[in-house]
Specification:
Blueprint (H helix, E strand, L loop, with lengths): L2 H12 L5 E7 L2 E10 L2 E6 L2 H23 L14 E3 L1 H8 L11 H9 L6 E5 L6 H10 L3 H4 L2 E5 L6 H13 L4 E5 L7 H4 L1 H8 L4 E6 L2 H12 L3 E5 L5 H8 L4 H7 L18 H22 L7 H8 L3 H22 L4 H12 L8 H4 L2 H18 L7 H13 L3 E8 L2 E11 L2 H15 L3 H4 L3 H31 L4 E6 L4 E8 L4 E7 L16 H11 L1 E9 L4 E3 L2 E5 H7 L3
Parallel strand pairs: 5-8, 5-9, 6-7, 7-8, 10-12, 14-15, 15-17
Antiparallel strand pairs: 1-2, 2-3, 4-6, 10-11, 12-13, 13-14, 16-17
Helix pairs in contact: 1-2, 11-24, 12-20, 13-15, 13-20, 15-18, 15-22, 20-22
């Protein structure tokens, strides 16, 4: 690129809007704001709806052109920096950020952006979460947004287990002397003495005007650090939870079934990304081991205070921690699959399915009229229970289970969805959801694949076996879709209480209760592309609705969430599941 071309691009950049769009919540509603830095101060204004799209397009074009200039840098002199740690500045840093130019950003990127460009001082930024959830990509994208002045003051340091705080202290002082103000330290928890000395970053360097971003996969290490060292001197951003709307928008992979199969990491086949993390049982097990089990092992190895997770430390010392964590995660999935298999396959559902198959225009079949579904279900249930017992090679006590579950909650890997029983409000109940659906589905699918190889199961003819497997996987997807909708509604609707409501007979898959307005919405969630009146039978049950109104206020909406098109059927609003989940982020 010659100088004239550079000047032409710079002129275009100067004519485009500066800053970035962030969402602010006011009185429970989200509003777009434009924020930018002017004369060293943070400025902002409310963005009107009619200008939002054009403004976003202009900002994105400005960033694209700025990135284009950076990708064709003017030759620079060799950096005089002599650091002990592996680092990137100048042209090496340009090469590092180049692969992510044009990649879409996660929703939580705005939190990192606000820290870098805002007036917040004396605090470090902690970017943490499980592997392959976009931490390093977010750092590269943040650097790619910088203008030339900020970029010249930016350094990226790749920390290794061979580094220590003494070395890093010297490196940061050298960077400070050379005028660097934006420092990104990746995998900082790999240092053996990080947890004990992390206050160095906030008390010395952030206090002197540096913006320090610490990132890594060791979530427990960062939590220990906040508790023991950083206290209120840090901003923490967790990347583990990746909702459907981000899977759809950022990765460009659409459809709830694709999310069920592969969701949970930012590594999905398609534009911009690699092969799926959860494509096979082997790759899923490797991820569980490397991203979860080794994570907690690392923290316990270096953490010197014995109060946290002390029972897990005993397992770690006996080299049984990885096995125990894998066992708990598999137990969650086994219990989930057992529930799918033992749920009563309601006669009306079977009847509707049988009728649909009989009159199918392309491939009519009477298989559901002949199959002994109860016998197949019972056999699979028995096999699964036997397999579950055979795999219990590690004796895990309740205290181990409690501490592992506490850790999985801390990772944002598991959430508990409340289950309220209309017959007994004092009965505390919940169901555990694994927030990485691809991990859950891969393990359930592999377990079922092994079960169908059993000799007793093979005694059934091929059509019956195929039907059984199809039914199980459809039930798995259906239950997972319920959990996904419940979880994402729970995390998005902070103004309401979200739960599953169980009656003496029947249930509402989801209730969204607003205490402030004494009202609620009731939902059924179906893994179906067709709107069938039977799907709404509970929503129109006068007795159930009267009991719900007495307890949770006026029913303001009755909905079926399914995979078909959004429409009204018989007074019930049918909502497309993908559209519903995407709208939760607005």
């Amino acid at each position: 690129m010659n100088e004239a071309e550079r000047r032409e691009i710079q002129a275009k950049i100067d004519a485009l809007p500066v800053g970035g769009i962030t969402m602010k919540t006011i009185n429970g509603r989200k509003y777009p704001y434009l924020q930018w830095t002017e004369d060293g101060k943070q400025r902002g204004r409310r963005v009107h709806e009619e200008e939002l799209e054009a403004l976003r397009a202009g900002i994105e074009e400005r960033k694209r052109l700025q990135a284009l200039l950076r990708s064709e840098p003017v030759p620079t002199s060799v950096s005089p920096l002599q650091l002990a740690s592996a680092h990137r500045t100048g042209d090496a840093l340009r090469a590092f950020i180049r692969p992510v130019l044009g990649w879409r950003k996660r929703d939580c990127f705005a939190v990192l952006h606000d820290y870098l460009y805002g007036d917040l001082h004396d605090k470090v930024f902690i970017l943490y979460g499980l592997r392959r959830t976009g931490k390093t990509t977010m750092i590269r994208q943040a650097i790619a947004e910088m203008d030339e002045a900020m970029f010249a003051k930016t350094a990226f340091i790749q920390v290794t287990a061979q580094n220590n705080l003494a070395q890093l202290n010297q490196d940061l002082r050298a960077l400070e002397r050379h005028g660097y103000r934006y420092i990104f330290l990746d995998e900082v928890t790999l240092m053996e003495d990080f947890i004990q000395g992390a206050a160095l970053f906030s008390d010395v360097f952030a206090a002197s005007g540096m913006k320090i971003v610490l990132s890594g996969t060791d979530s427990l290490g960062f939590v220990f650090t906040e508790d023991e060292q950083l206290y209120d001197r840090c901003v923490m951003l967790h990347t583990t939870l990746i909702p459907y709307r981000e899977f759809d928008r950022v990765l460009g992979v659409h459809g709830i079934d694709e999310y069920i199969r592969y969701g949970g990491t930012m590594s999905v086949s398609g534009v911009q990304y690699n092969q799926p993390t959860f494509a096979t049982k082997q790759s899923t097990d490797e991820y569980v081991d490397s991203a979860i089990a080794r994570n907690i092992q690392h923290s316990l190895r270096y953490y010197q205070y014995g109060g946290h997770f002390r029972n897990l430390y005993a397992l770690y010392e006996r080299n049984e921690l990885t096995s125990a964590i894998n066992r708990i995660i598999e137990d969650i999935n086994h219990a989930f699959t057992l529930e799918v298999l033992t749920r009563r396959f309601r006669s009306h559902d079977l009847r509707v399915s049988a009728a649909n198959l009989r009159r199918d225009r392309t491939n009519p079949s009477d298989i559901l009229d002949r199959v002994d579904s109860d016998a197949i279900t019972e056999k699979l249930r028995e096999l699964l229970e036997i397999r579950n017992k055979e795999e219990q090679t590690v004796a895990i006590t309740d205290v181990h289970r409690r501490e592992i579950k506490e850790y999985l909650d801390l990772l944002d890997l598991t959430f508990d969805i409340p289950v309220i029983h209309m017959t007994d409000f004092n009965q505390a109940d919940s169901r555990t959801v694994i927030t990485q659906p691809g991990m859950r589905y891969a393990q359930a699918e592999a377990l079922i694949s092994q079960l169908i190889q059993d000799d007793a199961f093979r005694a059934y003819d091929l059509s019956e076996r195929s039907w059984a497997v199809d039914r199980i996987l459809t039930e798995v997807k259906g239950r997972m879709m319920e959990d996904i909708v419940l979880l994402e509604t729970q995390t998005a609707r902070r103004d309401a209480k979200v739960f599953h409501l169980q009656f003496s007979v029947g249930e509402f898959d989801m209730v969204v209760f607003s205490p402030s307005t004494a009202s609620c919405e009731i939902y059924e969630i179906k893994h179906s592309v067709e709107a069938v009146p039977e799907q709404a039978r509970h929503l129109t049950d006068e007795k159930k609705c009267a009991e719900t109104t007495a307890r949770f206020g006026t029913i303001t909406g009755r909905y079926v969430i399914y995979r078909g098109k959004t429409q009204d059927v018989g007074g019930i609003r049918y909502l497309n599941v993908e559209e519903y989940l995407i709208a939760l982020g607005r």
